């Protein structure tokens, strides 16, 4: 889909797209469309489509790169490749989210979209517009996960935390790479942008760094939740060991009595007594009762 920048980003006829001053959103999976639009696009896609990175490069007056958004932010991996020239910009992705963000950018910022560089800035801004809310939702979910620790954590709890930790690390890396990209733009490493555009990318870089700090705090929070979970598991293990220790202690004197009268000596008067068996059973019950009272008094249970 093509949009004419000079016509307030009006949608163009796909059968006769403009040759300059346009935005093009093209599918990554259709190489024929890419080659028809620009021979360079297919080569760039071949380089970037299997690389889960956010980065940019400059070659022969063209800035090209990729944006890779991890799963946890949008419930799916989103990969977009872009190519920026003085009079055109290509956005290449199969994700419906990229199309939505582009149309939202045009709808909300139509008057500001005067050149490809500004369009790229406002599109990037739209991409991260609600990321703070998404991070807060993730944090709320972690809070619920933390509250479950004190109720009854299931056997998959550790796996869920490990999965969260891995995906949160991906978010932190995404913002770090995105910040490096926008910082490179704001420092005019390629001598490509004018003063106004540099200011825009500088402010964007600062916003992305704030999001990275939030992602890092999320990472720290997951570590804290994991430590709490481990402490609760240690407490549960101690309770189990405590129970088995008390059972062992209860049966220790009973085992001693059983071993004593199982030595098969001939001269053991208790063995021939009429009521010896009942007396011994009663004595063992008294021992168990006394030990239970003692455990209760010492608050072992």
Description:
- By secondary structure, the protein is α+β, with helices and mostly antiparallel strands.
- The chain has three domains: 1-127, Beta Polymerase, domain 2, CATH 3.30.460; 129-237; 238-297, Magnesium transport protein CorA, transmembrane region (Methane Monooxygenase Hydroxylase, Chain G, domain 1), CATH 1.20.58.340.
- Helices cover 61% and strands 12% of the residues.
- It is built from nine helices and seven strands.
- It has helices at residues 31-37, 39-48, 71-74, 96-109, 116-127, 131-149, 157-186, 195-260, 276-297; strands at 2-4, 10-11, 22-26, 55-59, 62-69, 78-85, 88-92.
- The chain has a seven-stranded mixed sheet, with helices on both faces.
- A hairpin with a 2-residue loop joins strand 4 and strand 5.
- Helix 4 packs across helix 5 (116-127).
- The chain starts with a strand and ends with a helix.
- The model has no long low-confidence stretch (mean pLDDT 82).
How is the secondary structure organized here?
Blueprint: E1 2-4, E2 10-11, E3 22-26, H1 31-37, H2 39-48, E4 55-59, E5 62-69, H3 71-74, E6 78-85, E7 88-92, H4 96-109, H5 116-127, H6 131-149, H7 157-186, H8 195-260, H9 276-297
């Amino acid at each position: 889909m093509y949009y004419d920048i000079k016509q307030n980003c009006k949608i163009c006829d796909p059968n006769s797209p403009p040759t300059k001053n346009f935005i093009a959103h093209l599918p990554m999976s259709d190489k024929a469309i890419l080659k028809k639009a620009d021979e360079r696009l297919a080569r760039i896609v071949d380089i970037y489509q299997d690389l889960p990175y956010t980065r940019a490069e400059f070659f022969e007056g063209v800035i090209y790169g990729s944006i890779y958004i991890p799963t946890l932010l949008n419930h799916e991996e989103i990969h977009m490749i872009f190519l920026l020239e003085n009079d055109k910009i290509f956005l290449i992705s199969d994700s419906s989210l990229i199309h939505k963000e582009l149309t939202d950018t045009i709808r909300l910022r139509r008057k500001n979209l005067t050149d490809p560089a500004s369009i790229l800035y406002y599109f990037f801004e739209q991409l991260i517009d609600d990321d703070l809310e998404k991070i807060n939702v993730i944090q709320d979910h972690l809070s619920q996960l933390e509250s479950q620790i004190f109720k009854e954590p299931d056997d998959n709890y550790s796996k869920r935390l490990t999965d969260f930790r891995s995906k949160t690390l991906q978010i932190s890396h995404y913002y770090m790479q995105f910040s490096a990209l926008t910082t490179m733009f704001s420092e005019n490493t390629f001598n490509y942008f004018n003063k106004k555009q540099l200011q825009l990318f500088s402010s964007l870089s600062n916003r992305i760094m704030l999001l990275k700090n939030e992602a890092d705090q999320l990472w720290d929070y997951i570590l804290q939740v994991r430590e709490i979970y481990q402490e609760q598991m240690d407490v549960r293990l101690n309770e189990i060991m405590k129970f088995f220790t008390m059972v062992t202690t209860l049966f220790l004197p009973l085992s001693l009595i059983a071993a004593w009268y199982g030595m098969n000596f001939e001269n053991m008067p208790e063995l021939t007594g009429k009521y010896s068996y009942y007396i011994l059973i009663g004595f063992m019950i008294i021992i168990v009762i006394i030990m239970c009272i003692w455990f209760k008094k010492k608050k072992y249970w």
